[in-house]
Specification:
Elements: H1 2-21, H2 36-68, H3 71-78, H4 81-107, H5 111-138, H6 140-146, H7 151-166, H8 168-183, H9 188-211, H10 215-239, H11 256-288, H12 292-328, H13 332-359, H14 361-365, H15 372-384, H16 392-404, H17 409-429, H18 437-441, H19 443-465
Helix pairs in contact: 2-3, 2-9, 2-10, 2-12, 2-13, 3-7, 3-12, 4-5, 4-8, 4-11, 4-12, 5-7, 5-8, 6-7, 7-10, 8-10, 9-10, 11-17, 12-13, 12-15, 12-16, 13-16, 16-19, 17-19
Length: 468
């Protein structure tokens, strides 16, 4: 019996090696051998473009509604940003666990582990989407009222949130399948899918808002339709995959062992995302108290903040996947090299992007509104937050490296206490005394710097402790 099991494992490993080496499968990337810098860029740039395109869905919503439905509609859509993030970040964090488990399995050359992880992940994505739809549709008004959304935009904000969350199963499907594909080094196909879905989203925005005058309902419907296209297309790709990544309906079941591995990494990451979003909701509530003009200004600037953040965060995801595969292959030296390369490439490129956003802050903000007062307020967020966002590269890369090694709880707790705790304390104690938009924005870089020093120490400790 032991002989049969060993023979079976050897057979699976041989099949897996053949699959990963097949020339026809250009989407696979060998993360275990060869120069790192070029491969990290090949992985990170399409991923960054994908995340930025997702953000451009929201930017298109805000730009179209701001130009054709007025500043109150702009504020109504913008007021939902942090609420949406708060509700979905737990499950987006769980998809990080999918990425790590798949990457570890690839590094271990385990065919069976990959295929069971894939089918478990798809089941989890389905139920996550259903749960989020229920919460968003039935609890939109209490949630938005709880964060002091101005009464003059509350009804529009509720309508947008309900329609947006009706399409949440498609969002979860896209995110989980994209995480599966990232685990084997494929970041290009999600990008191609979003290029098509993004174009459809923009066209539908113009038709429904400018043509039919549907306002916030129009942009929400367009976004749901685009999300459906992107989620179902990635599902189609997975159904037509080869080898262990192929989705087969008869294999759809939750394997407790792999669900546990996914949750051990993904749940702390997701809880961190939830607490991050909660701290941002607290900040958004403080922003809301400054009036709808400030809400609109912050929403406009936030689009560029997200673009720069998604760029730097793509290097964190690269770190998770490259470290995950090489940790599975028990190659700690290559894990350390991955961290150095992602810090160098992510940090230097983010500095350039942040500088460009600061230099062109006013014309960039004028895309969303022609009101000069709103533009001036939005420029404060551009200079203080976007201009210093490169600091966050260290926080994201160290967290990503630890997650790739299966250590997700400590970085999550560190970020929750450091970043989120500081921000919430600032809103409760400092903002009432210095009641201004600028006083809220300065806490972002302060919280990053305070947390990074602790996180770097945790990373160094785990690297020195790990012995293969």
């Amino acid at each position: 019996m032991p002989f049969d099991e060993a023979t079976k494992k050897s057979k699976f490993a041989a099949v897996f090696r053949c699959y990963m080496a097949t020339d026809a499968l250009k989407t696979n990337m060998d993360m275990l051998n060869g120069p790192l810098g070029r491969k990290i860029l090949r992985f990170a740039v399409p991923l960054a473009a994908t995340s930025i395109l997702q953000q451009l869905f929201n930017a298109a919503d805000i730009a179209v509604v701001g130009q054709f439905a007025g500043d109150k509609a702009l504020a109504a859509v913008g007021a939902n940003t942090f609420v949406i993030n708060l509700l979905i970040n737990l499950f987006v964090g769980i998809s990080v666990g999918v990425n790590v488990v798949v990457a570890n399995s690839v590094g271990e050359r385990s065919y069976r582990s990959v295929t069971r992880s894939v089918h478990t992940s798809v089941i989890v994505s389905f139920f996550s989407g259903i749960l989020l739809s229920f919460i968003g549709v039935f609890f939109a008004r209490p949630i938005l009222s709880a964060i002091s959304t101005p009464l003059d935009i509350l009804d529009m904000a509720v309508r947008y949130l309900r329609i947006y969350f009706a399409g949440m199963p498609f969002v979860m499907l896209f995110n989980f399948i994209a995480a599966i594909l990232r685990g084997k080094g494929d970041t290009k196909r999600p990008l191609y899918v979003l290029l098509v879905a993004g174009a459809i989203n923009v066209v539908l925005n113009l038709i429904l808002v400018a043509g039919f005058g549907l306002g916030v309902s129009g942009v929400a419907i367009a976004t749901v339709f685009a999300n459906a296209i992107s989620g179902l297309t990635l599902c189609y790709f997975l159904l037509h995959e080869m080898g262990p990544f192929k989705l087969e309906f008869w294999k759809l079941r939750v394997t407790p062992f792999f669900l546990g591995r996914i949750m051990r990494v993904g749940l702390p990451a997701g809880l961190q995302g939830v607490v991050f979003s909660f701290s941002n909701v607290c900040l958004q509530s403080a922003i809301n108290s400054l009036g709808s003009a400030t809400v609109a200004a912050s929403a406009a600037a936030l689009n560029y903040e997200f673009i720069v953040y998604y760029w730097l965060n793509s290097f964190s995801h690269a770190c998770v996947t490259f470290v995950g595969q090489n940790y599975g292959a028990r190659n700690m030296a290559r894990c350390r090299s991955t961290v150095r390369w992602t810090l160098l490439l992510g940090g230097s490129s983010t500095i350039v992007l942040s500088l460009l956003c600061c230099l062109f802050a006013h014309p960039l903000l004028s895309v969303f509104t022609s009101d000069q007062g709103i533009i001036e307020i939005g420029a404060i967020r551009m200079y203080v937050v976007v201009g210093l966002l490169f600091i966050n590269v260290f926080l994201d890369v160290f967290s990503g490296a630890l997650r790739g090694m299966g250590q997700s709880l400590l970085p999550a707790l560190t970020c929750m206490v450091g970043v989120c705790g500081i921000r919430i304390t600032w809103v409760l104690l400092v903002f009432p005394k210095y009641n201004s938009f600028a006083s809220l924005m300065v806490i972002y870089p302060l919280s990053w710097v305070a947390t990074i020093s602790v996180l770097a120490g945790i990373y160094i400790y785990y690297v020195k402790r790990t012995k293969f």
